[in-house]
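debug: dumping io for the single-chain case to check the tokenizer round-trip. Nothing else runs in this session.
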Amino acid sequence: MTYSSTGSLDLQDPAVDPFAVASAAAEVIAHRTGTSHHDLALVLGSGWGQTADLIGRTVATIENADVPGFAAATVAGHTGVIRSVAIAGTERRALVFGTRTHFYEGRGVRSVVHAVRTAAAVGCKTIVLTNGCGGINPAWTPGTPVLIRDHLNLTAVSPVEGANFVDLTDLYSRRLRELARVVDPGLDEGVYVQFRGPHYETPAEVQMARILGGDLVGMSTTLESIAARQSGLEVLGISLVTNLAAGIGDQSLSHDDVLEAGRLAAERCGRLLAAVVARIARP
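debug: decoded output
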């Protein structure tokens, strides 16, 4: 296998098996965390960062750049570390990714889904994918958490390679969504639409997404979810509405506003997700 200049297995090399890179990453994580097995994984998007502090005791922290296939965080509001957390009140471990690789970073779809495949390689059976997004429904004001029940992938790519026909019928687990509503019966759900980014969507694109059945727009999650299903993981997706999508409100969009909305909602979202994780982790 070939290595990049940083010493990581090169996911962009078509001769490299991306699942082998995930296995190599899992070996490093097992060594650094002192356990060969994790039960649940979380990918924390904008506004969800406090969750790792609330679900239990952090046993180990690993810099992304020290793990094969991973890179340092490139987006403001994300942290470039992987944490192994002992979930409070259980004997289970969570693997928490403080950042993700976005498709618009240009590192290829394999890098985008590498955390998901690594989670499967360390033994996780469930993954929670979170994000900050734009809301198409004007009733969902900034700070509103919304369960993802389905998605539209408008990136024009898939993480699945070759003739592997992966069923996405129940991609976002109904069981996990119902469990989340036990924690908060008021949680709404909707269809998440992923655009390529990094620019925000135009008002016309948002209206197109609405006509197609979308409720939320963003630049992540769908490719990760597809890879999770391919790897046999049960998926819970949760979005935090950080702004009204272009043309829905009367304000222009900025990443600073997204970060501020995430900051204001962080404690509520962290406690909500921690409570959901506690229920998922119960034997």
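debug: round-trip ok. The chain has one domain: 18-281.
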